[in-house]
Specification:
mainly alpha
């Protein structure tokens, strides 16, 4: 429930870090449990754990302006 409430307000990196923080409180099988609760892949959760352990500085933006997904064309 926590993930479904918070995820719409977070960017991709913030989501990964939130999930990684959830893994810290769990022991064996924590990555799998968090991945299932958040409905994401275990790889995504592991990436968050590595980012959290690395202690990297927060980024201003995840992607530079204009480098997001392509907009879908409307059918003509």
């Amino acid at each position: 429930m926590k993930f479904s409430v918070l995820f719409p307000h977070l960017d991709d990196r913030q989501r990964r870090l939130l999930m990684a923080a959830g893994v810290r409180g769990l022991r064996h099988g924590g990555v799998r449990a968090v991945a299932q609760a958040a409905a994401v892949s275990e790889t995504t959760v592991r990436k968050g754990v590595f980012e959290l352990e690395a202690g990297e500085e927060p980024l201003g933006r995840e992607r530079p302006p204009g480098e997001g997904r392509y907009r879908q064309r409307s059918p003509s």
